[in-house]
Each structure stands twice: as structure tokens, then as C-alpha cells.
Amino acid sequence: MQTSNSILTTSIEYLKGIGPQKGALLRKELNIHTYQDLLYHYPFRYYDRTQVLQINQINAQSETVQFIGKVDDFYEEGEGRKKRLIVTVKDNTGSIELIWFQGINYIKKELEHGKLLLIFGKISNFNGHLNLAHPEIEHFNEQSLNAGLQPVYPSTENLKFRGLNNRSFAKTTSNLFEKINARDIVENLPINICKNYNLCSRYEALKWIHFPETKAQLNAARRRIKWEELFVSQLKIARVKAFNDATKGYTFEKVGTIFNTFYKSYIPFELTNAQKRVLKEIRQDTTTGFQMNRLVQGDVGSGKTMVAILSMLLAIDNNFQSCMMAPTEILAKQHFESIKNVVGDLPIKVALLTGSTKIKERRQLLQELSEGTIHILIGTHALIEDTVQFKNLGLAIIDEQHRFGVDQRSKLWNKNKLAPHVLVMTATPIPRTLAMTVYGDLNNSIIDELPPGRKEIKTIYRNEQYRAKIMDFIRSEIDKGRQAYIVYPLIEENEKLAYESLTKGYEQVKVFFPDHKYKIAMVHGKQENELKERNMQRFIAGEANILVATTVIEVGVNVPNASVMLIESSERFGLSQLHQLRGRVGRGAEQSYCILLGSHTQSNESKRRMDIMCSTNDGFKIAEEDMQMRGPGDLYGTKQSGILKFRLADILVDKDILEETRTEALKVVKEDPNIQNPQNEALRMLLKEQDYQSHWSKIS
Ligand code: ADP
Ligand code: MG
Question: What count of other Cβ atoms lies within 10 Å of the Cβ of residue 504?
């Protein structure tokens, strides 16, 4: 963003107090190369001088505390790696111990009897004896009292060792502010945006984030910086979306015979209003002459598959082929069977392609695909391989998207002269903030209604003591003609252990069901595909009463006759995953049950999660809670994407700002797709600056 001769691009070593050695270290340790990088090295906390406790106010319940203490005594204990430094500090209300296990020599240099320290840290309770391990300490003087909020900077042991501790960061940054003024920090948001959203200037924001005189200044700085961060990200997403929306696509001129016949005479039920609405949205998208990029969200069991099928028939009526990609073979197979089943004797050829399709069969299939005699191809990610060539692919559907990466999505585009229409269907709902970021380039449809007549699934949490009772219950359900799932967690860190607990579980279930009339099938990821298929098929066909499984059955499997879902070690699952598993039952007319089995002792967090599961069946609510508890990074494969990485902004907290920036970004890009109008000069800089920053982070 800065022109090359801007003072902000000056190398960090020229700053007073830095020099070549510290400069090299700053580059290496914190990726700080220039004055500007230092400005962006924000404090992560502030000493709040208004919140100083007295030592007798500190108790086991206090978590982090700040107080002033006079060094009374300090000594080392233990030898070698067990060595520790113990410092007793006191004020006129009492005394308390500080402990260090590392950096002892460095700390010792800071200490002398009678020295006043400002101490900040976490209280630990050591057999009823309170102390603070590795607190932050700072020499306390009268000046610190007047300072209001003082910045605390992230640093590294190495930097601290070379004297770049918290205090010197503050000093260095304040030196920098003596060299620059408001004119050097050019505004990078349009004036009207700053005004409409009540944002302080960029200069103020950077000054106040480092040296706020009041809480109000700090809040203003934080709001402005978060706004800028989220706005840049939304601008980029809006531009991708604008690009997608302007990508030429095939026009599906008509709704033809196949669609109409199917709609009138083949669907065994009435579509819900939500299904009809989403279908209308898809229909609209495919008539514009531009490519469709649409996300369909719907709760488990809301009937996304039927929407997919109808869209594919629409394509066929317009002489296009369709494909549908599922994340697992079991699912692909199941989609294949149920689609074949539901289209019955309509003149449509549906084919299945997965990793285990035999070579000969595959060759034949590829040939028919390129000749256009196959209308619908269902498969796993085997579909995106280059050898898979269509005659005229018009629509690609991706089921249960979050297992696929964005790259895989875009690979489908190259399968025809123009990019096919793309429909992405999520397994469970996703929180709105994620929809705006991770899927922000797609148009969004929501199926917010379940088919009528579904009974609410009853969910309970029980511990091991109830196992026998639970098995009795399952037996009574089976005797009524129903089926049951028993699911074990997949333990990634320890596959062997997971497998052992699964097979042990299987043996245990057999003990509970000794009578040979009860048939038990087992599926897990380590089985040969063929065996897995066979066992799965036994359950789907109703030959097996119980399916013991790992989470391979998590997504999409549809056995309407199953009425019990028992989940072992349920604490090990994420909320959305539990919800998805629970969605395997409650698909038929019968009352269904989900039993969450867990240990006697529960952490508060897992107790809360189980409470949520037992109290609601609403996937949108559950998705929101799941994200709040686990953070967005872990969910939906977004960890690596970088799209959620911000210095200050946090989409869990800054929902309102995210909404504001999305609205504004879409508006800007609509009016000025290439960001080239003179009034958007500032934005052009902002985007360039971002590229500059990501460039640095890539090469470091
Ligand atoms: P999901 O949205 O979880 O993928 P499915 O598409 O598998 O859900 O649908 C769940 C079940 O509901 C299927 O058995 C399907 O046939 C049935 N279904 C879908 N739409 C309707 C409807 N409008 N009325 C009744 N049943 C429906
Ligand atoms: Mg589905």
C-alpha cells in the first residue's frame, strides 16, 4: 500500500534502539521487517492500572490477578532440571509466593530486596497454598500509576533474552510514533465508510491500539482495526463471488417431460415448501446464462437429496449430464441405489464410479460417459480425476461439502467447455458467520423445514451403570421390528485403541444378544471395502438388527427402519457430529431414540454439550453452539484455509462487524467490480497492502 519511499517501509534496524542484531532477530522471530510491521505488532493485553488488588484480596477463586508487591525474600531450591526460584513478595495486607522453573537467572537479575514489583499472573492453588507460577513482573514506580492502560506485547524467550522484553517493545514503538505523524499513516478506508460506521481514523487506531489513554480509545481502535481486517477479507470474497456470478454458464431453457413426469407421478410424497423454494432458486440460477454457485443448507433429514435429484432431471431435460459427488463410498453407493430406485422406469441412465469400480467396468463406463449415454454419474472423489470426461456436463452436485476442499470443487469446472452449474450441499447447517466467510463466495439456500409427520427424536444421556437397561431397551425395539445403531468414536491419535474398543464393544453386544435370532453386523474403516459393503448392505436390507460401527456411517446413511442410535463415549464427539449421527434415526414414521453413553465423571464442558444435545433437535442452534465451544478453526476443515486468520478480529465475537463489512463489501464490488473508481483509491491500497503482508508471511 505504501509507496516505496514511504517511511513505513523503512527497515526495522534503523529504528532507535534496534540496530542490525536485534533487527535480524525481530525478522527471524516475529516476522517484523519494517516500521509498518512493528505498528502491526499489537499488544495482546494491557496492564490496567485501575485494577490493582491487595494481597489479602487474592483467594483460590481469583483467576488472573494484578497487584503490587515488595520483594521480601528470594532463593533457589532443587538441583538441575528440578531447580526453581521462589520469591516472596508482600504488601501491608499479606504476602504471597512467586515461582519460576525456567529463565531463573534472567529473573534473578531483576530482583533485589525491597524492590517494588507490579505483578500479573494466574493464581495456582498448591495444596491450599496459593502462588503464582511464571507471572509477568515489572518494576513499579509512581509513573506506572498514572499510565492508565499499558500495552503488553507478545514476545519470545529469545527476544527477551536479548533485551526485547515487553517494556522495550513499548519504548521502541513509542520511539516510532515520534518519527511519524498522521500524514505517514494514510487512511485506507473511504471517508463515507468511516463516517457511516463510526470508525476512527487509521492513524488514531494504530496509535491507540498501542497507547490508549482511556478504555474508550482502546475500544475505538479495536473496532476500527477489526473492521478493516474483516472488510478486506469480505472484499476479496465479494470479488470471487462477483467473478463467479459473471462466469458464463449453460442455460437450462425449459422444464421438460422427464422433470414433469417425475414430479407428477414418481415422487412418493409432497415436497415441503422449503424444498420448493430452494428448487425455484436453483431453477432461476440456471436460466440466467451465468454459472450457478449455490450452497444448500438444511438440517439432517430435511430432504436435500430430493432437491438434488430434481435439479439433475432439469439438466437432463436440457440435454446435459449431471454428476453428484459424495464423501464416502457407502454414501455414493446409497445415493446411486436410491436414485435408481426413485427414477424407476424413466429413460434415464444412472451410473456409479468409485475407487473400487473394476477396471473393465470403469472403461465401459468412461466410454458411455463420453458418448453421453450416461445421464447421471454418482461417485466419490474418483469423479474429479482427469480421465473422467463427460460429453456435456451441465450440473455438478457436491454432497456433504465440508469433507471436500475448495480445490476439489473447482476441479469440476474443467469438465466441459463452460463451467457446469455447481450445487454444494452441507451435511448439517453451518453457523451464519462461517457461511459468510468460508462459503461467502456462494449464494445461499436454506431448507428450514422438515418433512411433515416426523417425530422429534428423544435424546437422553446415561452413564455406564445403565448399560444393561439400555440393551434391554434396544431388544424391545428390535422385537417391535426396528433396528439399532451402536457407534464408537474414531480415535485419530490411536487407531489401534479405537479398533480394540470397537471389537470389544461388538463382543459385548453379542453377550447381551445371545439368541441367534438377533443378527449383528459390524462396519469400520479398516475393513476391506467388500466386507464393509456386505455388512452395511445387511443392515440396510433389514437382515441385521444391530449395526456396530465407527463414524463411517456418520454422514447421510438412510435406513428409515432404524429407531435407536446408541453413541458410546459420546464426550469424544463434536456437537455437529453427534447431531449428524442422531440424524440417522427418526427417518421413518416411528418414534426414535438417541442414547448418549458417557462416563460417570463429566467435565463442565461435556456436560454442557450433552445438555444441548438432549434439549434441542435444531441443527442450526447446535452448529452455532458447536462453533462457540470449539472455535471455527476446528470445524468444517477450515483450519488450513487461512480464511479465518485475523490479528484482532474473531468471527465468534465480531459477528456484527462481519455483517457490516459483508454488506459494505458486496455494495462496493457491485458498484465497482474492479475497484478502480477514484473514490475507491483507498480500498485499492488496502487490498494491495494485504497482498504485501501475505507475501511476507509466505516467504518467512
Ligand atoms: P438429508 O437432507 O439429510 O440429506 P435426505 O435427503 O436423505 O435428507 O432425506 C431424508 C428422508 O426424508 C429420505 O427418506 C427422503 O426420502 C425423505 N423425504 C425427503 N423429502 C421429503 C418430503 N417432502 N416429504 C416426506 N419425506 C421426504
Ligand atoms: Mg444427505
Answer: 11
Using CA positions, which residue lies closest to atom 18 of ligand 1?
A: 303
Strand-pairing partners, residue 458, are: 593
Kindly give the number of the ligand 1 atom that is closest to the alpha carbon of 305: 6
pLDDT, one tens digit per residue, over 17-63 is: 899 999 999 999 999 999 999 999 999 988 776 778 999 999 888 87
Say whether 458-616 and 257-285+303-426 share the same fold.
yes
Q: Which ligand is nearest to the CA of 332?
A: 2
Contacts made by residues 655-661, CB under 8 angstroms, sequence distance 24+: 655/432, 655/433, 657/223, 657/226, 657/227, 657/230, 658/230, 658/234, 658/433, 658/436, 658/437, 659/436, 660/197, 660/227, 661/227, 661/230, 661/231, 661/233, 661/234
CB of 243 sitting under 6 A from ligand 1: no
- Residue 127, SS3 per DSSP: coil
Q: Count of CB atoms within 10 A of residue 505's CB?
A: 19
What 3 state SS string does 582-634 have? HCCCCCCCCCCEEEEEECCCCCHHHHHHHHHHHHCCCHHHHHHHHHHHHCHHH
* Domain chopping of the chain, boundaries: 1-49+150-186, 51-146, 257-285+303-426, 458-616
Q: Is the CB of 584 under 6 A from ligand 1?
A: no
Q: What's the longest Cα–Cα distance across the chain?
A: 93
Burial string for 236-259 (b: 16+ CB within 10 Å, else e) reads: bbbbebbebbeeebbebeeeeebb
Instruction: Report the distance separating Cα 451 and Cα 266, nearest Å.
Output: 17
Instruction: Determine the atom of ligand 1 nearest the C-alpha atom of 304.
Output: 2
User: Is residue 542 within 8 Å of 561, Cβ to Cβ?
Assistant: yes
CATH annotation of 51-146: 2.40.50.140
373 DSSP 8-state letter: -
* CATH code reported for the domain at 257-285+303-426: 3.40.50.300
Give CATH superfamily name and number for 458-616: P-loop containing nucleotide triphosphate hydrolases (3.40.50.300)
Asked if residue 587 has its Cβ within 6 Å of ligand 1, the reply is yes
User: Residue with the nearest Cα to atom 23 of ligand 1?
Assistant: 271
- CB-based contact 657:664 (threshold 8 Å): no
Rounded to whole angstroms, the Cα distance separating 678 from 173 reads 33
Distance CA 199, CA 185 (A): 15
Distance CA 497, CA 559 (A): 29
Residue 589, judged by CB atoms within 10 A of its CB (0-12, 13-18, 19+), counts as exposed
- How is residue 108 written as a grid cell? 534473578
Measured CA to CA, the distance from residue 605 to residue 266 in angstroms comes to: 47
The 10s digit of each residue's pLDDT in 234-281 is 999 899 889 888 899 999 999 999 999 999 999 989 999 999 999 999
558 CA distance to ligand 1 centroid (A)? 9
Q: Are 41 and 176 in contact (CB under 8 A)?
A: no
Q: Quick one: which of 352, 412, 427 has its CA closest to 582? A: 427
Q: Please state whether the predicted TM-score (pTM) of the whole model is above 0.70.
A: yes
